[in-house]
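Q: Hi! New to this. If I give you a protein sequence and the SMILES for zinc ion, can you show me the bound structure?
A: Yes, paste them in.
Q: Okay, here:
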Amino acid sequence: MAKKSRRNTTKRQRSERRFLPQSASNPWLVRAPGAIGAMGIGAGVWGYFYGHFVPDEAHPVQGTAYNIPLFVLAGGAVLMAAAIWFGTSGEAAIRVGDPGISVEKGDIRRMPWWKVKSISFDGPSESLVVTGKDEADADFSFRVRGRAHPLAVAWIVKEAEARIPKKLNVDDADLARIGEAQEGGTKLVLEPLQVVGRRCAATKKLIAYEPEGVVCPACERVYHKASVPRKCACGSEFSKSQVSAAEADDDVDEPVRVAEADDEKSDASAEA
Ligand SMILES: [Zn+2]
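A: Thanks. Here is the predicted structure of the protein with zinc ion bound:
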């Protein structure tokens, strides 16, 4: 929670981490059939070509025996298929970073931090439950299972703690189960956020030119540069140079009153 101010730099590189699911099954369910299947395929192919093209006078291959290599080959292929089936858990890849939390299954569906309604932990299924809206403002909720995505779960919690602590509903006991976040996944560098065409989070005014937009580094809400509040609705504070003149003047006159008013406004707009 004390990490907010560190993020308030104007020009920053956007990035995210991409986490691939781990197989939730016993790894031997993958290794054993995988190894035997591979041997079967190898032996079958070898036997098939040997039987066909290198006839041996002493061991004539005839009838059903002639097809044995094909059975071995088919059996090996079935075992390989089983290994692949056990090995791929069917879970989506998860991306966590500046653009928010994203679910990647074929295409990428993103939930920006400022559209997150709640992040909670479901103990029995050991999964993180994320609810909110996607970039197109459609309701979006998903689970990130701890068994398939232990690193992503811990990373989401770490980022949410720094960016949107008010939306993180995970108690200390669950935090202990989730464990410390470790650098994992693959770090991807992203394009700068496109602000043209977005609407100011405070006034709904359309951002028509790139320099008009001021982006909250924590939640990526976009404000028009004429109406940047002292504090973003996520709770993160803007640097003095970014805060619009009107707000900054108020701040000097009666700092305490303005701070309270800001909090109320923040909460109100966060609910909206
Ligand atoms: Zn913010």
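A: Residues 210-271 form one domain. Let me know if you'd like me to explain how to read the tokens.
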